[in-house]
Amino acid sequence: MSRPALDPVSEQAIDWMVELRAATPDPALLQRVRLWLQQDPAHQQAWNRLEQRLGHPLAALHALDQRAPGQAAEARRLLMQPTRSRRDVLGAMASLGLFGATLWGGWRSDTTQGWLADLHTGRGERRSFTLADGSRLSLNSASAVDVQFDAGQRLLVLRHGELLIQVARDPLRPLRVRTAQGQVQALGTRFLVSQEQDATRVVVLQHSVRASLADGQSAEPAAGAGCPAAR
């Protein structure tokens, strides 16, 4: 019995992910992927489903041509089988030598994450942005941020790197910065957040912030103070 075909959006997500297998992602390709993800919520959902299926999909795909040229097509074939479980897919890909234990356990591509973020800087580059609410955001070198502003929230997701934010006042939508360890809510106007390898560092430059960790701990450092690196 033949397997049911995937929908066109899922097929396109797989095609994009296979194209991103290059060791050094092409900026033009990454921009096309980013635009495609933004075109329709269904695109992002298909991408998320694919990532959940593999856990760290780009890790395997980046290694394909370096370890065994031509295996990208086989990876795509495995991914195109919608009824297979994640465990089955991973087992099959492992049997092909598409990734090793060390790579699978700890690899991540900050470069790729950065190019797919809403706002980003390269190494040695610093940029400033005016956000939709009038806040001023500055990104340090090699930083990436997603911006999620709507009628009910102002949220910045710091993927990696460091940001400095001058917050525009909006009592109904306090600005928050989320990192891997927790989130920081603006109680004033100006602060710095740095996402380090396994920790978040917060420095308050004006007024105060409320820092909340994933384990429930919280602190409200004032200007001139900072939070110890949260791990």
Features:
231 residues; alpha+beta; Jelly Rolls; 2 domains; 12-stranded mixed β-sheet; 8 helices; 12 strands; 28% strand; globular
Counting structural domains, the number is 2
CATH-defined fold name of the largest domain? Jelly Rolls
Mean pLDDT: 70
CATH class of the largest domain: Mainly Beta
Structural class label: alpha+beta
Instruction: Profile the largest sheet.
Output: 12 strands, mixed
The proportion of residues forming helix, as a percent range, comes to: 25-40%
Number of strands: 12
Radius of gyration: 20 Å
| C-alpha geometry | globular
List low-confidence stretches: 55-72, 82-112
Number of helices: 8
Helix and strand run: HHHHHHHHEEEEEEEEEEEE
Oligomer: single chain
* Distance, first to last CA: 51 Å
Which percent range describes the beta-strand content? 25-35%
CATH architecture heading of the largest domain = Sandwich
Walk me through what this model shows.
This protein has about 230 residues and is of the alpha+beta class. The chain has two domains: about 10-115, no CATH class; about 120-230, Jelly Rolls. The protein has helices at about 10-20, 25-40, 40-55, 55-65, 70-80, 85-95, 100-105, 110-115; strands at about 120, 125-130, 135-140, 145-150, 155-165, 175-180, 180-185, 190-195, 200-205, 210-215, 220, 225-230. Strands 1, 2, 3, 4, 5, 6, 7, 8, 9, 10, 11 and 12 form a twelve-stranded mixed sheet that branches. The longest helix has 14 residues, at about 40-55. Mean pLDDT is about 70; it is low at about 55-70 and about 80-110.
